[in-house]
Amino acid sequence: MKRPDPPSGAGHPEPPRLPRDSDGPTFAEPWEAQAFALAVTLAEGGYFSWKEWSAALADELRAASGRGEPDDGSHYYRHWLAVLERLVAAKGLADPRALRVRKEAWAEAYRRTPHGKPVVLHPSEAE
Amino acid sequence: MNDHHPADHHAAGEEARHHGGHEHQAVPSDLALRVKALESLLVDKGLVDPAALDALVDMYERKVGPRNGARVVARAWVDPAYKERLLRDATAAIAELGYGGAQGEHMRVVENTPAVHNLIVCTLCSCYPWSVLGLPPVWYKSAAYRSRAVIDPRGVLREFGLELPDDVEVRVWDSTAELRYLVLPERPAHSEHLGEEELAALVTRDAMVGVARVTIPPGARRP
Question: Do A76 and B17 touch (CB under 8 A)?
Fold first, then answer.
């Protein structure tokens, strides 16, 4: 899509400054990478199309902006994760309640596991 | 279920707790736990393969990055027939070098000339040519860039330190889930003596998004 050059000197309000970065790490934290990979893998598996994903992400970014949340790119993967949870529920892959239960189980597993030992869920928690 | 993901060792902002004399694991952040819950549920259901997840992360963290795009650009600069194929059918020409899109998206390459400067954006979310540029930088995903690149591209370019003469036409290309763009920057002047590899080393991510030119460091110029 080609857009014409806008007229210069139009009376726009003071535009937000662009955030900048260097060619730094791709993901700020490991969970961002995992959330990214989950979405790509589910799309490749045909559980949703990439077009559906992009549309849902665009909706989320718009909604976040409407809620007044920072939209400078720093919260990008938070929005990504929220979309992922919603899409996974909408497609019947994992319901929100099961996700909450599983999250608590992981938190508990971390609390009870001595340092240096692998963190595991008990079989009853992985139901 | 065993879990050795590196996320376990990166719990941000939480201290390992002392409990009954033993040092216990730090509980990861709420966001990290949500991802963990999602991943482990989907893995248990057999919907995703943990090895495939790890391979993807590894690929995007280490292997895919703007270097792929830089090789495409350098090849186009030294090989006119390749450049012609690239501008005609970018998806196929990029695949010739072994780079393919993860989402089956189509690629289009837009060429900068002395009269035309191209800039890419995704106004709705953050569609980006992953297969050749890796993952987008934080500013590309920001609302400021997504909206201003279209409203005031010259102002955006100025903020990136690129002042364009008034007689250069600016074209802004809005990426979608199906069609993603890559800018073919102008080959810098005085670079005739450089080979393909040396040229590729000059090409930056920002130049292929269209917010910078490719420049040749004075030291690399032929005396």
Answer: no
